[in-house]
Amino acid sequence: MAVCEVCGNDYELAFEVRAAGAVHVFDSIECAAQRIAPICDHCQCRILGHGLQAGGGFFCCAHCARQKGHAELVDSA
User: Fold this and answer.
1) pLDDT band, very low/low/confident/very high, at 75 (cuts 50, 70, 90)
2) How many domains is the chain partitioned into structurally?
């Protein structure tokens, strides 16, 4: 079994995620999101979809990006 690096659960169905040269072990998608999903620089929600980047920041949507002064970003329709 493997131990989740977020909650410490020793779980037989744990899985590995390889990202940016590191290997992470999690017991659930929820724990994986808590550890590796970026956070919106405006509303602080976890970005689980594509999100947007501007000026070195991450944003969950164009609205949040505009609130931080990035008027050039738009959501796709």
Assistant:
1) confident
2) 2
For residues 10 and 25, what is the distance between their CA atoms, to the nearest angstrom?
10
Contact 64, 74 (CB under 8 A): no
Length of the chain (residues)? 77
Same domain, 27 and 55: no
Euclidean distance between CA atoms 32 and 15, whole angstroms: 10
The per-residue pLDDT for range 18-44, each reduced to its tens digit, is: 998 999 999 999 999 999 999 999 999
Same domain, 53 and 72: yes
pLDDT above 70 (res 77)? no
**What are the C-alpha distances in Å from 62 to residues 33, 36, 48, 55, 74?**
21, 21, 15, 13, 5
13 and 44 in a single domain? The answer is no
